[in-house]
Amino acid sequence: MGTRLIIDTDPGVDDAFALALAARSADVDLLGVTTVFGNVDVELTTANARRVLALCDREDVPVAGGAARPLVHPRRTRPSSAHGDDGLSGRSDVLPAPRRPVEPGGAGRLLAGLLEAADEPVTLAPIGPLTNIAALLASRPDLHDRIARVVVMGGAVGGGNATAAAEFNVFSDPEAAHRVLTGGEVPCVLVPMDVTYRCAVTAEWLAGLAASGPVGAALHALVPDYLAHYRKALGADAMVIHDAVAVAEAIAPGLLRTESLPVAVETSAGPARGATVVDRRRSEVRGETEVPVLGGRVDVAVDADPDRLRALLTERLAQP
Ligand code: BDR
Ligand code: CA
User: Fold this and answer.
1) DSSP characters over the chain
2) Does ligand 1 lie within 6 Å of residue 240's CB atom?
3) pLDDT tens for residues 83-104?
4) In the chain, what percentage of residues exceed pLDDT 70?
5) Is 48 in the pocket of ligand 1 (CB under 6 A)?
6) Preceding peptide of 12 cis, ω within 30°
7) Mutate to test the pocket of ligand 1, among 36, 81, 127, 153 (most ligand atoms within 8 A of CB)
8) What are the backbone dihedrals phi and psi of residue 207, each rounded to the nearest 5 degrees, phi first?
9) To test the ligand 1 pocket, which listed residue (86, 243, 245) has its Cβ within 8 A of the most ligand atoms?
10) How far, in Å, is the centroid of ligand 1 from the Cα of 168?
C-alpha cells in the first residue's frame, strides 16, 4: 500500500486538480478529505470536494466539512474572485452530483477518527487555510505521532498574492499557520508559491489534458475564470496549479527539492500580516546573527522539476 493521505482543502480550481491527482493515483490510500473556508465559503468547498470525488469515481472516500472562519480573528479575505462565484469558475455543475452524504460530526471528528484507526503514520496535505489542522494539533496531542508529515501548500519566500507580503492560504488564517508551521509538533514541508509558479501549466498543456479522457475533460471545463485570472497575473496563456504541486510532493516524496530552513509567520495586524519569513541566508552567516524569533524549522520547497510534475499529472489524470 502506498502513501496514506488525508487532504484538507477549499476547492478551488487548483484544489480540484490536486484532489483528482490523489484520487486517481493507485499508489495512494486516500483515507479522507476535509474542507475549510477559503476560495469560497465552506458549504461550497464541501460540495465541490464531493463533486470532484464523484467525477473520479471515488465516493468510497469520506468527506467532512470543517472551519467556516479563522481561529482567532474575523475573516479578512473575501472569497477569491480567481476561482469564480462557486469556486470552480461557475462550472461546478459540469461535475456529477455527489451521492455519498457528508460525514456527520465535522472535520475534527473525521481527522481524529482516521488517525486513530491508522496502522501506519498518515500524511496530511492541507491546501487551504490551516484552521482545521491547527485545531487538530491543539485538541489531540495524543495523535501527533500518527502524522508522518504535513505537506502544506502555502506561504511565499518572495512577494505574496493575497497581499504584497502574504500568500492567500497563510493570510487567510495566520494564527493557524503559525501553530502548524512553527509549533514543532509535527514535521512540516512548506510548498510556497515561489515554487508553484515555476510549475505553471500552459493553455496548450490543458488542451492536451482535456483530450486525454473524461476526467481531464471535466477538469479542463473548470478553468475559464481561473485561467483568465492567471493570464493577468503571469502575462502568459498559462495558470498555476499550486495545490497539485503540493499534493504531488505528498504522494511522491522528494519530487521537490527542499531545504530545512527557519520559518516564522507574521501575525501582527500590520502590512506584513500573513507573511512567511523564511531565512535563506547561508547557515554560516545565520549562525552568527540568529536571534530568537517565534519560529521553527520547516522543510521548505526551493526547487522543482516542472516537466516531471506535469508528466506525473498527465499520467495519473489520463488513466481511463
Ligand atoms: C492558494 O490559494 C488558493 O487560491 C489556491 O487554491 C491555493 O491553495 C495559492 O495561493
Ligand atoms: Ca486551495
Assistant:
1) --EEEEEEE---HHHHHHHHHHHT-TTEEEEEEEE-SSSS-HHHHHHHHHHHHHHTT-TTS-EEE--SS-SSSPP-SPPPGGG-TTSSTT-GGGSPPP-SPPPTTHHHHHHHHHHHH-SS-EEEEE-S-SHHHHHHHHH-GGGGGGEEEEEEE---SS--SSSSS--HHHHH-HHHHHHHHHS-SS-EEEE-HHHHHHT-EEHHHHHHHHTT-HHHHHHHHT-HHHHHHHHHHHSSSEE--HHHHHHHHHHSTTSSEEEEEEEEE--SSSTTTT-EEE--S-HHHHHHH----SEEEEEEEEE--HHHHHHHHHHHHT--
2) no
3) 999 999 999 999 999 999 999 9
4) 96
5) no
6) yes
7) 153
8) -65, -35
9) 243
10) 6
At residue 267, the pLDDT reads 96
CB 271 within 8 A of CB 258: no
| Alpha-carbon torsion (120, 121, 127, 130), positive or negative | positive
- What are the chain's domains? 3-317 (3.90.245.10)
Tell me, yes or no, if 242 is annotated catalytic. Answer: yes
Let me know how long the chain is. 320
Which ligand approaches the C-alpha of residue 170 most closely? 1
Question: Given the C-alpha cell 455519498, which residue does it identify?
Answer: 100
pLDDT single digits (tens) 31-83: 999 999 999 999 999 999 999 999 999 999 999 999 999 999 988 777 678 99
How many Å lie between the centroid of ligand 2 and the Cα of residue 105? Answer: 23
The CA 282 to ligand 2 mean position distance, Å, reads: 31
**CA–CA separation, 293 vs 276, rounded Å?**
13
Q: Closest ligand 1 atom to the C-alpha of 196?
A: 9
